[in-house]
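Let's sit down with a protein and look at its sequence and fold side by side. Once you have written the record down, we can walk along the chain together.
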Amino acid sequence: MRSIAPQPALDADPHLEKRRDLAAAFRWTYKMGWHEGVANHFSVRTDDRKFLLNPDKMHFARIRASDLIEYDADDAATMERADAPDHTAWGLHGAVHRLCPHIGCAIHLHTKYATALASLADSTLPPVDQTSAAFYGRYAVDDGYAGLAFEEEGERVCSFLSDPRIKVLVMGNHGVMAVGESVSEAFDTAYYFERACETYLTALATARPLRLLDKQTAAKVADEAGSESTRDGVPSHAKHLSEIRLLLDAEGSDYAH
């Protein structure tokens, strides 16, 4: 018989803020039109190799903090649970939290511009502006797509994320994966990478020559962007997600429940 693991009462959950951050990320992703129907998944590490993941086939627009399900990346019986995740979610996110201990949060999307970049024969993102330069040396391109992200494919994909400097994986012929130590870092990364891809592909569409930044300047921008923080020492990515939560709260959203 398939069993379902009980979820802790929300007010007693030591990972409550992670739940709320991830739920807010889902809701805002929906607002930006980045969802893929009831596909795609976000996860955040809770303890060692345990992580929270969105329920199978639940629309991002409805996800609340209490809906997120905790799994153990080492539990071979996960797919026998009544609340088992989608097979590709387990294959990809289970592998991330099993093989990449430096990654706290992983956001996988099929956003319009990042996926368009992933569809090009050359899926690199050149430093054509400040935002794209911020990713210089901080992303990788996987051009070996081998099918849906079941366990074997998930483990192969994770080989590109073993370097802590890599914050984005352009998944050739597939989509994009943004990672970070926290939900706010991974979400902020996904947001700005999509913006960078939009600028680059829009510039390409003009069929006019690109003005590329030189490698030295691009590397300097990437270093500066990576160390950016607000005056009170709070990273800008944390401020970004905090503002999103305030906006959702003002709308009366139930994401935090």
The radius of gyration is 18 Å. Residues 1-5 have pLDDT under 50 and may be disordered. DSSP finds eight helices and seven strands in the chain. The helical segments are 16-31, 87-99, 112-118, 130-133, 151-158, 183-205, 215-226, 236-250.
